[in-house]
């Protein structure tokens, strides 16, 4: 470890060079006009992977933006690690309130500011720099390494399934390592052992074939599609915030005693969080703590609703239709497909009189879970702990990383999510940033982790 | 009557001339660019009123488009009739499916086609032509007559209250006669003895100060404003279509036996009505017939709703706010102001946790009612019946004519609503039309009515 520390110290002045060059390429996957930059960014990373000593560097194509693959698999009888990251970023406009240009990174007070500084270029380069460092010092790696760096994370990993299906053997590994999450403490990373999945649908309610006058001759005898939708939604979640669709909670995984304990040990300033979003009180299922509601319990939210007249003033109509967008965050042990059929059944049973109802499903991502006692995870915890001064928390996440669950399920491998972000990193927001100190420590901690994994012996496959 | 009949027969070829000229002026009050035409139309009618022998012809100004006033008050000891009508029309575009230009009236198969042919230029000219006919034959009128013809009916009679307040004495009369409604039968008019009023409000629900990610770190602990709105709306009307706001139905006037009888005698083809609007079943309060639901029972309808993301695809947010437009059709004996406070109280009591709720009231029109046994009304019924072959129905209306209630209440006079329209007149729709035969019969019937009213003796005021 001392050798690594002194290597990092010696190279301190150039450590961020590639990250900064990479941030300068506005690889925004959601914006069509950024197509050239997307490929420029992928090319940049591809070249860097070759340069640091990785092999078989190539694009894997699933029909969308390519994923970059690379490997180094000469550590005989050692575990194989698949590292996942993404090179696409969220859109960013200087005008939105950035102090410096989002695509001209600037270092202020030991923080790198720029779009992608944390999500995910910053966290990706922590991984790449760790590999580079190990190569530089040992001329080899302590474990077998495979990388998959996709370009569609910010648009929902649209073609990731195709890529995985086409390259199952190439991507197979003993564990997946991902740095694309965050921690609750600014100064230390966290390890995330569970993520919620997501399912979403659009519900349309059709009443009469046109907007009707709300007075004569239909005003009082026709079901109002907006009201029909209100009653249908009301049947799905009650006033206390509890989802009332029969069977919805059936498969929700209960917390183990260990999980409960580690969850209770985490303290959050609810007052500060309330202040941040300007609400006077939080709301949710009774009997569950703040973090249980966000991490352990599924949700059902209306993301958007529309129907009838929305202009200025009054327009006394019974509108012809109404529609709503709904997403559910689903939790470990719940299955998207099962819930879709449970919800569909509930809707069919509760169609209000006098209207037609249609359900259209959007994409579905299953939740992710790894037992917090998993040896690969505990090894990561120890490796990080010995580098960072603060204890590293074991947490869950309320959000979804589609690719994690896809890789985890399709390739049947445990995943270790090491998150170096924090809410003040302003991921997806203005002035996204990353601590230079954390960047350096992360490289050290990841080297430490891979060295520790390298001390494991794996039976060679016949 | 024979004298009138032969006068109308003699003048048959010129009877529609003024109506047709008037329809040619596109007096659309909702469209700003029609301002000149609005005044051109008012001038046209003003000139015509003078020409037929009415006196004191002038504009009454309330700050918007002027109302036209005229009178003839030389029938000593006879009742004074205030006739209301309007010269503004709904917008109309040839491209919408008009067979002939909406503002170049055409007579096809004995029907006049053009915007305003029924609403209200056609029905207004029935009244004016009746006055002209009586003048021509008798050189005087059998009753005292006052007219008020406004230009803002189609935009909610915005300045009618001001006009009435400023000219109370001038407008005072023994009864109000209005031809701006319709009948259920094509071949005969109907007399409408009750109209619903309307109250409307906008309800806004504010949650967090911005759209939140529905995953971490708020996804499960924040009240969703759309769902809060759903629960609030659900508390206002139940799944059976019954308004569940305490006290809402308290003042609803019950039907008398006579009313029940006349209502039950009216037959409607519900199948045809369902087909027209493309619904498989009607919906509404159990225990009430179709016409009771539309005429006698109040309603609460959501006219429009919006909140959150409404674009393509999924956007997994908890939106910051949601809003809804609501109108209630209110029925005789209910008071708009009372209901506003009842609704406001209910909302205040039911504000969901974790959100702010705001209510903004729009305009309010009270319902109108005259006892169907009222002598002025029965006289009208007899006068119409003797001219039209079919029995004239006593009906109510589900809609609202703001000015009727304003004049009725402010000037404390009974109102007789004689409706010559029919659903096939296509009022507010394409190819609006009026039967030429009905136009002629209407003039005859109205002359008959005014002659019959003229047989009444009224004590001269001291």
TrEMBL record, chains A, B:
Domain Peptidase M20 dimerisation: 193-352
GO molecular function annotations of the record: metal ion binding; peptidase activity
Keywords associated with the record: Hydrolase, Metal-binding, Protease
UniProt key word Metal-binding: yes
Any single GO BP term: proteolysis
Pfam families for this protein: M20_dimer (PF07687), Peptidase_M20 (PF01546)
Keyword Protein biosynthesis: no
Highest taxon of source: Bacteria
Stated name of the protein: Dipeptidase
Lineage: Bacteria, Bacillati, Bacillota, Bacilli, Bacillales
